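User: Can you write out an input/output pair for a complex, sequences first and structure second?

Assistant: Here is one pair. Inputs:
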Amino acid sequence: VEWVEIQRGLVIYICFFKGADEDLVPKIVNMLLNVKLSENESGEYVSVLDLPGDVLIIPQATLGGKAKGRKMQYHANIEKEKGLELYSQFVTVCEKELAANAKCMEAGVLVKHGTYGNRQVLKLDTNGPYTHLIEF
Amino acid sequence: VEWVEIQRGLVIYICFFKGADEDLVPKIVNMLLNVKLSENESGEYVSVLDLPGDVLIIPQATLGGKAKGRKMQYHANIEKEKGLELYSQFVTVCEKELAANAKCMEAGVLVKHGTYGNRQVLKLDTNGPYTHLIEF
């Protein structure tokens, strides 16, 4: 059993739909690392790169579910192999973006991630849940 | 400072958009309490009423945000007063539904909720995050 942990930062739940491709990955990463979702010491909202903060990436295919009657169906989700490929690229691009950011490097912030397609436990501790949905 | 806590069950993050009204509340509650999102001891998916499990309701207006450039905007969200009204009704209807369910009453399951419009801390512990988005 492996356990990853981040400190203050951004938790990303990611789900790929059918039709998603490699070109989309840098766009998503760029958006998520630059959108102002993190509160700094002065109470201003800044990006996780500007905070700077850690990033935890969680594969969450269930986000692609649609309720049909009392059951959830996942027909819109990408095929598992392609999803794994995009997920791995997503993690790699995030790592590169943080590594290319001087503020992040200086602060020693981390990118951690879950493994695709496996059940994983999660413990989350927030000082105000601040959940957003961003579609691409 | 008040702290509420649930055991095994369902965590609901709720956000009301402009145009939501009272008629919608029982429909949402009925759906969320009956959709099969909870894993029982045998690994089958059942509703939170059938589990039976606790319910934690968290007001989460940020879910209504849309990214505009690098900032989130919340123009689609309902006005604060109306949102509070619907949120209170939502909590009440959930409580009634659980109280009307023999299995839930026997098991002594709980409905707990956050307060609307205030910052609240959250600690979450899952045995596999299993996040779904259900729109009404």
